[in-house]
């Protein structure tokens, strides 16, 4: 059995009780908690603990389908105490294989004699060895079993006997409650509530299930949906994984876009029996609450369940429902959100329809009408609502959703409305509905569906403006999907359709997309042309967006060594653009400037703009827009020697990217992760990230970044041929050092080009390649690029090793300190080799390679003992996340791959 999670408080209480019982003071422990919360698990741990203290354990379980079998759980628990007796006995009637004492003829007396016999059976056993008797799930026990338990509980007071039972308070019958009252009054009862797990507990449990600790978004979803109920945590986790909505990317767990979806059947089954026990009217009210969800006010419920005595039903349902107050009105919810989902899942779509229709009617009667809630119910009410009215509501719902950028909602309503419009012959509505469908598909990252819908919309559009707009948006969707050739075709078509028409805004947008497109394809002349076009439009119209875009275009051009742009100009443009209130555009422009600053090695500017972009995405409530800036920031942090932070940011970008299907962001994040892994010596893992990235998304520019990293990986494996094949030979010098690292054959012409770029990073790199090491290293240092500076120092040391060994030793030593600090294993090894060759003794690392810090050693030893990450976390008072980080470092330092290898390593190093 896996380790018990949490429950320290409960176990402490139980331990105290065991002390008392061991001293001859019998007790009754009641473990109370809702279905799946972890009562049985806790009870089993109690039995284990008692067994270790020398108790004899007995165990029976009441079960829902045997609640009519008298004494069933008690008989099950006591059977091990029975040895077939030769003498006739009062217990003979309960247990097979015994002879039965003659009947007394008085039923009451007979019962007392039976109970007394059971009590002495237990007391006799407890004389020889303390006894703990567990009856699980007594809310299902038959009344006679409850009577026996009560009798035993009272009789145990002066014996070494502990009676334990578990029950669900919300399902406790009057008989169970009466037993509790009586035991409580007698003072023998110790009540231990079993509460849902804390978020930390949930995290530990998920880590246990998945083998390592998943990132925050996964935990947030699971905590939110399960509300800490252990069984739900387990079932939801496994269902997500099996349903393909929880999967590995770059060796991490991430969620897919539909992760918030359906309830697992096991969860539905758990509630089933309880829901079935309700009578038809109460069940109808519960169903109405589940279907109406956010609209389940007394009003709406009254309308939905018009033929029912609602107050009476709500009172009878009090263990199923809670009252919430929203907007000054009482709202009914199920005690656990999954209960509503389970009840809903049990209903067939046609059984749901009348509830949805009634909810829609109730919502429509109110003012102001809640458009989105109304459309939700109308969409699911099917034929229960008049189709023309449904179409109107769904169209309004789609429009409203698009305005709020609620992509999933818009998608659903637009799809349903389109179907209806076609059925009702309302072709006039189709083009508009298609655009809402396409917008929503873009918001949710369903680029294929967006491309298809924009295409249909463009075909349907009759007005040239509208047609051009659809073609332009089609091109944008294609750009997002990486279909850059098609995108370019459609942009040209859009411009053709516009011809001489007056359409400044549209022309600006077309130029904007073209700008992005051409930069991704690295087409310098086309970028120049687009910038010129924007400047022309800006000059004619004075349109601020055109001017700002043109300025950004110029900024982009500096990457190719064309012109210069002052930081203050960028800021001005940002201010101008920000005033335009188009979050997507603002983030796009930030991205361009982030990319440029990254290529120029301007770390502070990257970080500042990333923060601006992310803030903008957040205020607009568009998390998908955070993906690319976050991934860029990961690259920047790599460059700046903050490698742990780079990994964390890459993880975050990956998680968000998968959630919102931002494929370019996913690939960029994978590239950042690969970069750090590679420099830390994990070549295989880095290459698998690169393969995942390439399969996922590639355009020219991103492709080159991936190739550079792949070339470096090949070099790390000493595969010069592959490196030479992959090393890019042309293109702007984004992240020039990367390029230079893989191209040893740079001629003066390339260095001259670097000079011409005219920014400090390029100048430093050119100097480095020309052998001006000291100057270059200083420059790189002052740019905040410690890894590059150290690499430059190491090159210097190599060059002067023969002529000036003292200088070489000093330079290599300084470089080594940086490499060690970053865990840059390959470079560390190079530096150490040189130092040894020069006769210097390279200072051992604070933690020499292969050796672990004190904390890491602790973690390693516990893991080697077979403890799970969660268990290690608990023992060392760390978060599971931290344990994972430690483990990663441990594996890296020791060059190991698995827990088994680690166990072997620890065993061999201890002997
Ligand atoms: N504290 C815990 N640590 C680890 N696993 C737990 C814990 N509590 C519950 N579980 C697991 O969750 C599931 C449901 O718990 P269970 O004890 O059967 O719930 P209950 O008896 O309250 O319905 C089981 O698979 C159990 O092993
Ligand atoms: Mg149980």
UniProtKB/TrEMBL annotation:
GO molecular function: adenylate cyclase activity; ATP binding; DNA binding
A GO BP annotation: regulation of DNA-templated transcription
PROSITE patterns named in the record: HTH_LUXR_2
PANTHER family assigned: TESTICULAR SOLUBLE ADENYLYL CYCLASE, TRANSCRIPTIONAL ACTIVATOR DOMAIN
SUPFAM superfamilies: C-terminal effector domain of the bipartite response regulators (SSF46894), P-loop containing nucleoside triphosphate hydrolases (SSF52540), TPR-like (SSF48452)
The protein's name: Regulatory protein, luxR family
Keywords attached to this entry: ATP-binding, Nucleotide-binding
One GO CC term, this protein: cytoplasm
Residue ranges constituting the HTH luxR-type domain according to the UniProt record: 845-910
Annotated source species: Kibdelosporangium aridum
